[in-house]
Specification:
Elements lengths: L2 H19 L6 E4 L2 H19 L17 H25 L8 E3 L16 H17 L2 H29 L1 H9 L8
Helix pairs in contact: 1-3, 1-4, 2-5, 3-4, 4-5, 5-6
Length: about 190
């Protein structure tokens, strides 16, 4: 297996888990607008394209940004697997309340188990971590730009989610916010 394969396998596992688990969600009661959803999705697609597409490798963004060492590659592989693992773990804890877009589901509950005990947005944390790991393995400036774009998209989406959750759960969400970190765990 090549180094590239070691980072593609967890992303494939992530995609497969997401597709299968999406079949087991509750009916949506309220959702974000079409433009809000697809605006952030476009940002994410641009970010992941920068990380994984070699189309810009002939440009300055295609240059290496780190000295190539096996230690950096191993660190990138570990971060990719760890990040995807965190995202899947978080998705598992959301269960039937998960959605790819910002929504409230029937009987929606505020999840405080698993990674949600320390983080408000562990799926985004995991995906950011996995993108950073993949960028370390691929080692191109386009990946650095892509990770920045990905993180920006998730920050925008997380803030919109928080506004919806604060409106739905009021003081319970405020208490949860005080006990948890946004994208980094509160210890």
């Amino acid at each position: 297996m090549t180094l590239h394969d070691w980072i593609i396998v967890p992303w494939i596992a992530f995609g497969a888990y997401w597709l299968i688990s999406a079949l087991k969600t509750r009916a949506t009661v309220r959702r974000e607008s079409f433009f809000a959803r697809y605006g952030v999705m476009l940002v994410e697609v641009i970010g992941f394209t920068l990380v994984f597409s070699s189309d810009l490798d002939g440009s300055p963004l295609g240059r290496h940004f780190l000295p190539h060492t096996s230690g950096i590659s191993v660190l990138g592989i570990v971060l990719t697997w760890l990040g995807v693992g965190i995202a899947i773990w978080a998705r598992y804890h959301l269960g039937q309340f998960w959605s790819g877009r910002i929504t409230l589901k029937e009987g929606h509950q505020l999840i405080r188990t698993g990674p949600y005990a320390r983080l408000r947005h562990p799926i985004y944390t995991g995906l950011d971590l996995a993108a950073i790991g993949s960028a370390l393995v691929i080692d191109r400036w386009r990946c650095v730009a892509g990770v920045c774009v990905i993180m920006l998209g998730f920050i925008v989406k997380a803030k919109r989610e928080e506004a919806l959750l604060a409106g739905q759960f009021g003081e319970a969400f405020e208490e949860h916010r005080k006990l948890t970190g946004f994208l980094l765990p509160r210890l």
